[in-house]
Specification:
The structure is a homopentamer. The N terminus of chain A is likely disordered. Helix content of chain A is 55%, strand content 17%. In chain A, a hairpin with a 2-residue loop joins strand 1 and strand 2. Chain A is α+β, with helices and mostly antiparallel strands. In chain A, helix 5 packs parallel to helix 8, helix 7 packs antiparallel against helix 8 and helix 8 packs antiparallel against helix 10. In chain A, the strands form two sheets. In chain A, strands 2-1-3-9-8-5-4 form a seven-stranded mixed sheet. A two-stranded antiparallel ribbon of chain A has the order 6-7. Chains in contact: A-B, A-E, B-C, C-D, D-E. Chains D and E meet through helix 8 of D and strand 4, helix 7, helix 8, helix 9 and helix 10 of E.
Chain lengths: 337, 337, 337, 337, 337
């Protein structure tokens, strides 16, 4: 039996703790897990971060996990789901973090947490995310009575923790959409606006991809036949489901608004095109009409009395200006200029 | 036991009344609620307005409400839903008010009412809305026999009251859509029209967001397995459901009409663009053709017999006018001008 | 007991007839209804037209109708539905009439018929429609054996009558769509065409609004658990359902065709825009190129040998014409003109 | 009892044959049908083509068919369906034929076949189609053992025959779509292309209208509760269902491709518009810039040294050409020309 | 009994192997299959490649396969499905290969594999694909204990093998979409971009056509009633289902992104059109305004004092340049140039 000090899991092992009747009894080495797990009054909580396949398989043996679930967890890149393997559950969650890109704009980083839950253990395996579950563990240690709800409650707390972090992400998208809407009618259409609408859509769909399958999965943890582990905590899962349904509803709403915004943008571009053509035509008239007059008096006919008038030239200039003023006023009235 | 006079709930407590066999027996202090609630012949009705978390929790203890429901109610911003917690129900309703914005246009204010219903109590918690349930309470006091239907009937009356207020909101949207449609074909396309279509769409979706989840929730209160509280009032809930289905159908219909209107608007903008280009081309011809003639007679060839004719100049001017008249008539005929 | 002669229901009462073993026995006064209804061998058929609330309530008492159904019937503006109240059924139907508007175009008038059906009575309440059920009643009196199927058969006959009247409405829409399609590719795009497509869409959706909920409701009257009243006539309701499904399928089909037609119209407008721009450009070249030549020979250089040639002027004019002819042929070949 | 020779069904009666233990025993007159149908070892097969209502009703009596089914069959214009009437089945099938229109393009003719199937009879009624079931009957006579599967097998064979004929129709639409796609990017957008896309869409929807309801109906003939007649042939109906599902999947796929093609076409038209405008602008510059130079040297200032230079004129002409060449190369480089 | 050496199945027979208790015992001739299949401890694995109908039928007799399944397999061109025939299963799978077209772009080749699975045999029939199942067979021979899961496990392994090959196909489409998105906002809209979006859409739909029906079919192999053969391997099929659901979700996501990209492209084309028109108008003004000035001083009035000024000509030229500079700066400021 190895001691924690010599275990090779140093970097990937975040914590490995045994609880007894809700109280933490010890940080235990991974190799001892199987011992504690078989004591009915014990609860073992192990948290890993990006373990190698070998490391994961060693732990899997300690907990006696199902081959397929372990394969999913070692590969990562699963879609959110909650599966029953006998009496235990295997859940895949996708936490989402807002991160700043190099050019200062917001981007999302979608991580993955694989959770194995049995009657008296929880094993979490984090991939590609800094978001841990320290808060959940702290709460459990602070309020040991929560563990009396059983392992189902721990699963609930983990899912709830992940779902709660979707709200600021959604808020960010709503804020960006509102900003884009304010812009929409305020100024001329531009590539930038369309690019922003497109970017919001992309982020929204990434979020939807994360929320929808999880909602579907959580919906099977309350009402009707539910896994044994979740039987005492159905109301809690219904609550999480409700949060997911709310997020999903808002996603749908933003999605439809975006579609409309893109269509409306197209119409605004058409109107803008119209206006430019009209203004172009109006100014064109203001230039070409005097040019015609100048052309007329540039003709070389012998007999053109106006040419001999001493006020001929000023008169011509005046008539050009007068016609342009009249045209200008007319175009102004019909709003072509 | 505190008296009503010294309770700190003054501002948030709208009313707290006990009924016995359908008749109001007293305004009671909140701290007495638990006593009255345990008397089977009693019915307690409490209405709160934006309580603090502490205030809400105190009342929750009097009624022995479920932690999750209380958390939802204290946070607000839930989506419409109706949940069973054991024998009691927790409902979230979203009343909608039409309010005038500063620039005189109509806007909606979406509030929230959380309702806790047990065998012999109702607790309503209002957020962000001035719309109260005085009418419902008055009716109950006027027709005490309604309470014989049990607490389910009170829940029905509250929901019905909220749903009835959706109709004028929907009517407003329909009226605005009809006005927008009349405009659509009547005059030139403009940013204003598109902005109005977009605004109607936004309001419509806000309403849909409020109606759809409630419809889904109410649909579970009649037919099949229904919560114990609602068993004697299924026909009433079916009636509310039907109203919600009607609203929902109309929303869908407006939504599709809006989509079509936006598409049609795009086509009209295209046609308008076409017309402007044609008119531009026609007037351009009326100017450039005489300019060409003037240019010809502005050439400096030695041998241009027309230049020496005494009627050369008038003839040139006449031919310009004649050509323009012909062109004008032709353009008129093909409707380019 | 009032006699029929003195009843105040004169204007709203269309008929009130009692049948015995399929044969009409008497026109009876409304106040006698409750007597006849309680005779098991009797069947009472009452038809009302836009009764006042008071009138309706009086009759409701005779038949002992459910408060909620009566409220729906007195308010009108319900969506199509069929509801069970104990052993009786309450159906809302929307007959559609084609009416001519003042400017000669076709419009639809959507009425409402509320039907109360019990074991041995039928009560119809018409709103906003001239279409009565004389044909149904006549058939029932002509073939009394039909009544042996029970009240469910009468309900079927009424629904079938309403549904049969949807077909000419649908045919009218199909005819108008076909006319619009023929126009689509035949001539230039215009506001009128788009307006027609939009109008068809609006009418179509009004019809859909009437057909879909009814189809859904009728679908519950055969197969699985059906109301007691309809148990002997399931095959008839399936037949009506099938007609509604056919109408609904055609509506969906027209709807999709309309969407495509509007999109196609947009493309045609774009092509037309393209063509106008090309023609504009071609004619512009035919004018501006000679203008350039004229401009060149209008220059005042001392040494321009062509100016002194005696054939200089005709040559210039000829070259202008020659260039224009060449350009014209070229534009003709690429179909810009 | 009439003999076949004197029966008035001459034109509409295609065949009326009795089989015994799978072997054809006789062509029988219609009036004898009821006799043969009541012999349990007999199987009667009647095929009609567009009978009058009277003719149909006479046969209906021989077979004792349900009034509603007969009404449907005499009216025609039903949507595809399969209905149970007691122990017998009533099916409506829509065979589709490819026909050449006068201008050489392909069109579809959608017929209708109403099939009545009982334990030991099949009655087919064809409307508006030349496609008969000679092949099905021939196969049955050739392989009499097939009849041992019972009447359900005959129904299967008829449906399978109709469904098999949908494949060439679908192939034709796919071929036309592929040709339209090849065209899409190959040459300029034109009314013809759009018209073709629209025509394919229309045909596709007609086919969908025929396939979808039939698929839904056949789906009820295997798995779960199935009509008595089809119990031994469920695997055959599942096979037909699978063919219909495949057709339906392809229809959906073509439909979505068409929608995309129309949208893409719109984008291509926009790009084409762009290109025309650019080319127009470029050629405009090539004409107007020399015109400006000519205008400058057409000015009448006393002191314009260039005018007196002997190389002034050639220089001016040369500068015009040089500028145009430079402009041309520049426009060429940015692909405006 | 024929020996393997003289069998006519040479080209189409890929392998025909008998296993006993998980160990390979012999390559057997096809004609011996029926013998081995009837030994309960034996497992026969036959792989065919594009057999003729006659060859297929001969083998079908050895295995006693159902006529309809054999017909499907000999025809090919089925949609993906899994069907029960008594105790055996018939599955149609569509492997997808990425192949290079002649012009170097990627294309997909969609093959077909028909799989017949019984209690102790597997028969695979490949059409139009080079992708074999050597890997699956090798694994089975390497880990004979896998065969203890029964034939259901072999079916799982085959499906899993096919599904795993969809991921690189999907990745290729995602990569191409991302490249197309990067292009979208980077440079001007062009036919090439649209053609690429269209091509991705087409490939995507081909993949969807392959994935969706298979997902539906696999979904019936776990949970609820499952075929006898798959009862011990439900968790494996759930795992494959999950992979298919993930692929399907990504397909939906790409599909929606493509739709948005095409719409956005349309808007970008509109904006580009706008910009070209503006630039055209601006440069037009820079040319026509000096032309007007030149025209004015080209008039032939006797009394035009400027003409006699010695600085008249330079002044005119200067004013032309000055105006153009001012216009240029102004257009620059409003971004028309």
């Amino acid at each position: 039996m190895m001691t924690a000090a010599t275990t090779p899991f140093r970097t990937m092992l975040v914590s490995c703790v045994a609880y007894e009747e809700g109280r933490k009894i010890a940080d235990i080495p991974v190799a001892d897990v199987s011992e504690y797990v078989h004591r009915p009054d014990c609860f073992v909580w192990v948290a890993l971060f990006e373990p190698t396949q070998a490391e994961l398989e060693e732990i899997a043996q300690e907990f006696d996990l199902h081959e397929l679930a372990v394969e999913d967890a070692s590969k990562g890149h699963q879609r959110p789901k909650i599966e029953e393997y006998g009496d235990s559950l295997f859940a895949v969650l996708h936490p989402v973090e807002i991160v700043k890109t190099e050019d200062g704009s917001d981007d999302f980083r979608i991580g993955e947490v694989d959770v194995f839950v049995g009657t008296n253990y929880v094993l979490t395996v984090r991939h590609r995310t800094q978001l841990g579950f320290a808060a959940v563990r702290a709460r459990t240690e602070r309020e040991p009575e929560l563990l009396r709800h059983g392992a189902g409650f721990v699963l609930y707390a983990l899912i709830d923790n992940v779902v709660d972090r979707y709200f600021p992400v959604l808020d960010l998208l709503e804020t960006r959409l509102e900003a884009a809407e304010d812009e929409l009618f305020a100024s001329a259409s531009s590539r930038g606006k369309i690019e922003e609408l497109y970017a919001i859509k992309r982020h929204l769909m990434a979020l939807k991809h994360v929320v929808s399958p999880l909602m579907e999965a959580v919906g099977k943890l309350y009402g009707g036949r539910v896994p044994h582990l979740c039987q005492g905590t159905q109301e809690y899962f219904r609550d999480v489901y409700d949060h997911l349904a709310r997020i999903n509803g808002t996603i749908e709403s933003i999605r439809e608004t975006l579609t409309t915004a893109i269509q409306v943008n197209l119409a605004l571009i058409g109107i803008s095109d119209n206006e430019v053509t009209k203004r172009f035509a109006a100014w064109g008239a203001l230039i070409t009409v005097p040019t015609l007059i100048a052309g007329i008096y540039g003709m070389n006919f012998k007999h053109m009395p106006e040419l001999d008038w001493s006020i001929g030239y000023p008169l011509a200039i005046f008539s050009m200006i007068a016609i342009d003023v009249l045209l200008y006023l007319r175009f102004k009235r019909v709003k072509w200029i």
